[in-house]
Structures are given as C-alpha cells and as structure tokens.
Design goal:
By secondary structure, this protein is mostly helical. The chain has one domain. 77% of the residues lie in helices and 2% in strands. A hairpin with a 2-residue loop joins β1 and β2. α2 runs antiparallel to α3, α3 runs antiparallel to α4 and α3 runs parallel beside α5. The longest helix has 41 residues. It is elongated, with a radius of gyration of 26 Å.
C-alpha cells in the first residue's frame, strides 16, 4: 500500500464521523473493478478489430481475379459474414454489459444479488440468441435464389442476403435490449415489493411463537 493510500485509510478510519470501517476497501475494490471493465472493453475492441482485419485479408487472399476484376466464390462471402457476426457478438456483449451494470444496480438497489444474477442470465440469453442466429443463417452450398448454382460466384442476391443477416441480428438485439430496458424497472419494483410484503408469520408474531 502506497503512502497516499495509507493517508486515505488513516483519514477514513480515525475520523470521528467515519461512515464505515471497510469503506476504503470498498473504494479500492470499486476502482479495481472499473479497471478490469476497461481492460475487458479494450480486449473486446481489439478482438473485433483483429477479426475485421482477418476477414478482409481472407477475402482478398482467397478471391481469384478474372480479367482484372474480383470474382469471389460464394463460400468466401459466407465465411466472411459469419466471422463478422462473431466479431459483433464478441464486441457488442461486453459493451452492453459495461453500461448496463450501473442501470441494473440502480434498478435492483434493494436486491443487489438479484441484479447480478439478472445480468448473468441476460448475458447467457444474449450469446444463445447470437449462436442460434448464426447457425440458422449458415449455408453449405449455393442457393437457387442467389442465381449462382452454375457459376458458384457471389451475386447481388447473395450480397443482399448477407447484408440482411447482419442487419437482422442488430435489429433483434436492439429490440430485445429496448424491451429489457423497459421491463427491468418493472421487475426491480416487483422484487422490492415481494421483499417488503410480510408473510403470514411476519404479520402475526404470536403465531410464530406457538
């Protein structure tokens, strides 16, 4: 512990109106938790950037050229879109969680453990939705709607489908996140009321002694 930390601890513990003996430890823990969140955010952004760069390099390296123009096989675009979706999931999840912790702590201030459990459960739902969406949209061969069953190259129809895949997951996560923001205060209020409403035994203390 540095000299500054010693001085802060001394001021907090020896003050006549010191609020709590563990206040300094809680402040230090909060600072460390904020640092961990910042590091996780940097890691998520780095992973997304590396994923985007790797996808771009993969497309450029594996795409053949025909008469000076790119002639991309259909499967390269399919792999690229899947990697983009995975990168979005890796980056967007921690980003939402970082700003959602304070909101959940304010909503579940009477039930902090419930708030933490709620954040964990929403994370599980988030990644399950992303995984299911990616698997539902994967194709292992050219599609008749794309018009490339013979050529095996990327067409405008496949590009439209790929753009719709990326836009679709962003729309789904946006709608679910908006519903979560609206419903979370309602759930927090219900949990608070459930905790404050006395049960039958609490309402009649003489019955509990029998």
């Amino acid at each position: 512990m540095t000299q500054l930390e010693h001085r802060i601890a001394k001021a907090l513990t020896h003050s006549p109106d010191a609020p709590s003996p563990d206040l300094f430890d809680r402040v230090v823990g909060s600072i460390e938790a904020d640092r961990r969140r910042r590091r996780s955010g940097v890691v998520a952004v780095s992973v997304a950037a590396v994923g985007g760069a790797a996808t771009t390099a993969l497309v450029l390296l594996l795409t053949p050229r025909s008469n000076g123009a790119l002639a991309m096989p259909w499967w390269i675009l399919e792999v690229a879109v899947t990697l983009v979706l995975i990168a979005i999931a890796v980056w967007l999840g921690p980003f939402i969680k970082r700003f959602g912790r304070a909101y959940a702590a304010d909503v579940f201030h009477d039930n902090p453990l419930t708030g933490k459990s709620y954040i964990v459960l929403t994370d599980i739902v988030y990644y399950l939705i992303f995984a299911a969406y990616i698997l539902f949209g994967v194709h292992f061969g050219p599609q008749a709607d794309w018009g490339n069953e013979v050529s095996g190259l990327v067409t405008a129809a496949q590009l439209t489908y790929s753009a719709a895949r990326i836009g679709g997951i962003l729309l789904i996560i946006g709608i679910l996140h908006g519903l979560n923001i609206v419903l979370m205060p309602v759930l927090g209020r219900l949990f608070s009321l459930n905790r404050r409403v006395p049960g039958p035994r609490d309402a009649d203390p003489h019955r509990a002694d029998r």
